[in-house]
């Protein structure tokens, strides 16, 4: 199987965005605030948005299953308070669950959390539990910066995050460390904030002993790890100066990278620098970079082409990137597939 571990519902029906606009308007004028039950999206609307977008491209490009979560830029945890985020997260997670129910052979859900700046991360646990136990979610998205580009939260190694980690370990689910929209004009959302956050999350783990407290905790750092593979020597050297173990021992039993890197030299670098066991196939298709590369004539986010064309992987290693590693990291997905005889 070819498993894409990084998919977002970027094509959700327009009614979802319209409801969110009303929710935001209601923060200033409560008379504008809609109820969650006011949002009406039919199964046919969901089918239309998926069949003509993600599923169509999956079939054309040759992928089989996508781990599917709410649109990252829509999480916008900096808007409103915890109740705002809790309602919004519940709505978005239910939609992804409905996608997985309508297309069970092609999508399996992962959850966004109802994070809010300055609010105890433990408040996210009820939504996490619901999504795992009722919706069959196989992972979560964890935003290390709910402030939207101002970085007011403590680092991921801070004990305030531990209640979430304890639940992750209990359920054996990984977290994709993924920020949302930047409201800081210094940081473009997808071109700077996302990649800054990937790099920052890795460094926060490097400087800490988080994985001594949680030896089985698993983080997926998206977008190829931001600057991490390109500056692997810098991070190895910093770990050495900080008297940390070698990175293979210190971090690579717990941190994994996806292949949302949109050119051949980038994938070649990733697969040359990072051990194969730590690389999971992903495309984030219909996401941040949707255009066609004029130098190749193919879509930038058609990442399977890069995996096929790199000289750094043999057939067995490609299997690990496409399927084997994903089954190991997302153990609940593996169990769900085995239940289907796959």
Automatic annotation (TrEMBL):
It comes from the Bacteria. Pfam families: Amidohydro_2. Signal peptide: none annotated. Residues 3-331 form the Amidohydrolase-related domain. The keyword Lipid biosynthesis does not apply. PANTHER family: 2-AMINO-3-CARBOXYLMUCONATE-6-SEMIALDEHYDE DECARBOXYLASE, ISO-OROTATE DECARBOXYLASE (EUROFUNG). This is Amidohydrolase. It comes from Acidovorax bellezanensis.
């Amino acid at each position: 199987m070819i498993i894409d571990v990084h998919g977002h519902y970027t094509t959700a029906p327009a009614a979802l965005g319209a409801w969110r606009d009303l929710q935001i308007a209601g923060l200033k004028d409560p008379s504008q605030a809609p109820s969650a039950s006011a949002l009406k999206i039919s199964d046919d609307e969901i089918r239309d948005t998926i069949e003509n977008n993600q599923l169509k491209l999956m079939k054309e490009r040759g992928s089989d299953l996508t781990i599917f979560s709410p649109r990252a830029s829509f999480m916008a945890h900096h808007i409103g308070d915890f109740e705002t985020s809790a309602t919004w997260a519940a709505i978005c997670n239910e939609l992804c669950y409905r996608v997985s129910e309508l297309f069970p052979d092609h999508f399996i859900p992962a959850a966004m959390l109802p994070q809010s700046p300055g609010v105890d991360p433990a408040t996210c646990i009820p939504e996490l539990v619901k999504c795992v136990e009722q919706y069959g979610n196989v992972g979560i998205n964890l935003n290390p910066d709910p402030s939207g580009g101002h970085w007011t939260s403590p680092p991921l190694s801070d004990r305030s995050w531990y209640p979430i980690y304890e639940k992750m370990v209990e359920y054996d689910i990984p977290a994709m460390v993924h920020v949302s929209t930047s409201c800081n004009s210094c940081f473009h959302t997808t071109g700077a904030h996302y990649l800054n956050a990937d790099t920052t999350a890795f460094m926060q783990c490097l400087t800490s002993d988080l994985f001594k407290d949680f030896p089985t905790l698993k983080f997926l750092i998206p977008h190829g790890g931001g600057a991490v593979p390109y500056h692997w020597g810098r991070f190895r050297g910093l770990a050495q100066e900080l008297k940390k173990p070698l990175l293979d021992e210190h971090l690579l039993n717990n941190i994994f990278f996806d292949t949302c890197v949109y050119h051949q030299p980038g994938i070649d670098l990733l697969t040359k620098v990072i051990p194969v066991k730590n690389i999971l196939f992903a495309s984030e298709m219909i996401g941040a970079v949707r255009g066609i590369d004029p130098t190749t004539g193919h879509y930038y986010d058609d990442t399977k082409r890069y995996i096929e064309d790199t000289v750094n992987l043999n057939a067995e290693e490609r299997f690990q990137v496409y399927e084997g590693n994903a089954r190991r990291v997302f153990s609940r997905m593996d169990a769900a597939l085995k239940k289907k005889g796959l």
